[in-house]
Amino acid sequence: MKLNLLPTHVSKEKQGRFAFVLSALIAIGCLALMIFMTRSSREALDAEKQRIAAARPNAQLAVATSKRADAVIAENRGLILNINLAEAMNKHNTVYPDLFDEVRKYIPNFYRISSMAAVPNGAESCTVTMTGYLSTFQEYADLMIALLRIPGATAVSRSGFQFNEPGVPGLIPEDQQGRIIRPGDPRIPDDPHDRLDQQIANAQVTSFQNAGGFGTSEAPIVRGAMPTQSTVTVAVVIAGKNIQTPNPRQTLAESAALWGGAPTPGQPGQASRPVPTSPQPATPPPGRANPGRSQDGEE
How many folded domains does the chain comprise? Predict the structure, then answer.
């Protein structure tokens, strides 16, 4: 059995001395780190002040240049408006041809076009109206499906088809066979003598009918509907197409109204007024037509 007869303070004296030395070292390290951080911050602050001082002349020059540019723009606002208006009008020259070229790719071959027109519905859509000729009711039904393939087409309306396809009518006492006839034609009787009399009564000398302008001229003209065809008008609403035309008169009139006539550089009380620099779109005129090409390559 081993007994520790020494006092407790003897064993802890060495631990207290070690803790004192360690705390002194930590304090010295913190003081050195504080001095280093203070010096580094002062050097960084001095470097930023020097950089700001070096960049101040360029900033002042940029501000002066910006003010001068604003003054030049204010002095030449009419010229800027005219240039923007001319550029917008030149850019708009290809809007309708590009639209017609895109729509023409989706027109089926059985729909012979005689005219095409486009009218803007606003800044987000337009309506393309086509007039052409169809022969059968099946083509009339397929036309809507074909035109709905146009990119952005949201609605297709059609009108004008005249049903003239032959069919079997209901039975009557004179016609118990149900012979095929066209709408509006007289019924064909069963009795051979009555049928012969009907053919004699309806007999006529056939000649050139001059229907649709076919055969009247070799020059490229618009041909109308053939005797068995119908004139069909189709309207296609296309979303995402802005074909609004710039309106020079409205744009210049609004500019003159804002400035009260021709502006004079340096005139007091006008520097705070807004300067119109964008051309105004024209209000879509009703029934505006833009002729396109027919399927035959005719104008």
Answer: 1
